[in-house]
Amino acid sequence: MPSSPLFPLFADLGGREVLVVGGGEVATRKIEALLHAGAQVQVYAQALNDALAQWLAEDRIDRLEGAFDPAWLDRVWLLVAATDDRAFNAELAREAGLRRLLVNVVDDAELSTFQIPAIVDRAPLLLAISSGGAAPMLARRLREQLETLLDHSLGEFAGLFARHRATIRARLPQLALRRRWFEQVMEGPVPTLLQSGQRQAAEQAFLAALESTGEVASAGSVLLVDAGDGDPSLVTLKALRALNRADLLVCDAQSQPAIVALARRDAARLPLPIDDASLLALLLEHAQSGQCVVCLKPGNTFQSAVGGNLAQRLSQQGIVCEVIPGVGV
Q: Is 214 helix (H, G, I), strand (E, B) or coil?
C-alpha cells in the first residue's frame, strides 16, 4: 500500500496507446473506461471473454499475441495488469518501473504506481474518488451516494462555461473578477433552469450574464471567520463557502491546520498579524486591490465586539465585510 498520499490527476488519453494485460471481467471494466476516455487499447491475454472478443471483432481494441514482450511497454502511456498471477503482475510492474511507466495492478496497491478511482461522470465534469487501494468498496459506496446528490445537469452547466471560455477570459481578464462572475452565475438562475430541463432559457440567462460582465464589482471584500477549536467536523456551511471563495487566507496555519486545509488550494496565505492595527492595514491593502480576503482566527474572536469593531472600520473604508460563525454548536 502507498506510504504517502496519492497525487490526484486526470490524464488525457485521447488517441494514446494503453496496454491492458488480462482478458476477464475485471480487465473488461478497465478497458471500457479507457475506451470511454478515447484511449487506443491494446490487450494481451491468453483468452478473451465474450465482450472483449466482440470489441476485437469491431476493431475497438487491438490484441497482442505470442509470448509477452517487455518491449511492448516502450510505446504505451499506461499499463494495467488485470491477471490473477501475482508473480507475473510483479514482473510487469518491475518492467514498467524500469521505463518510468505508470502501472495499475488491479487489487494490488503495493505493486501499483497509480490507482483507478471510482468515477462520478457528469461530462465534462468528472469526480474521482480513491481510497489509495485501501478500501475500494468504500470509494464505490461514496460514488453511489454522490450519484444521487449531483444532478445530471451539472455536465450541461460545465459545458456552458467551456463553450464560452474564450469570451469569458477576454471580457474578464483579471482572475479575481472572473471568479466573482463565476460565483454570480452559479448562484443565479442558470443551474435551476438546467435542472428543470429548460436548456434554451438557461443558455439565454447565461449569455445575459456574459453580456453584463461590466457590472461585476471590482472591489474586494473581507470575510472574518472564527475557527473554534479547530475541529473541521464543526465547520458551518457558510464558513466552508467562505474558505472556498478566498483569494487570500490570513491565518495562523499552525493552530487550525485541519480547517485551513479546507480552503481553496490556490489561495495565497499570509500569517496573522499580532496586533489589530497591523491586521486592519493588511486586510485593507489586499481588499482594496480587489481580492476576497478571508481572515481566520481561533475561538470565537470575531463573534465578540472585536469582530464588530473590525468590520465597522473596514466598512468605513468602503470595504464589504462580513462576520461568519465558523463552527456550529
A: helix
How far from chain centre, in Å, is Cα 172? 23
Quote the domain boundaries for residue 182. 154-215
Q: Which cell is 139 given?
A: 470509494
Residue type, 54: Q
Q: Is 124 a member of any domain?
A: no
Does residue 238 sit in the same domain as residue 308?
yes
| Helix ranges, 187-323 (H) | 190-195, 199-211, 237-245, 257-260, 276-288, 305-316
250: which strand partners? 270, 295
Burial of 274 (0-12, 13-18, 19+ CB in 10 A): exposed
Within-domain flag for 247: yes
Domain count, the chain: 3
CATH label of the domain that carries residue 74: 3.40.50.720
Residues 287 and 196 in one domain: no
Q: Which residue has the cell 461568519?
A: 324
Per-residue pLDDT of the chain (329 residues; tens, 9 = 90+): 455 688 999 999 999 999 999 999 999 999 999 999 999 999 999 999 999 999 999 999 999 999 999 999 999 999 999 999 999 999 999 999 999 999 999 999 999 999 999 999 999 999 999 988 888 899 999 999 999 999 999 999 999 999 999 999 999 998 878 888 998 899 899 999 999 999 999 999 999 999 988 776 666 889 999 888 888 888 888 889 889 889 999 998 676 888 888 998 888 999 999 888 999 999 999 998 888 899 998 888 888 887 788 989 998 988 889 988 877 65
Which CATH number is 257's domain given?
3.40.1010.10
pTM over cut 0.85:
no
The verdict on 166 and 230 lying in the same domain is: no
For the chain, state the CA radius of gyration. 25
Distance, in Å, from the CA atom of 99 to the CA atom of 107, rounded to the nearest integer, reads 22
In a domain, 204, yes or no: yes
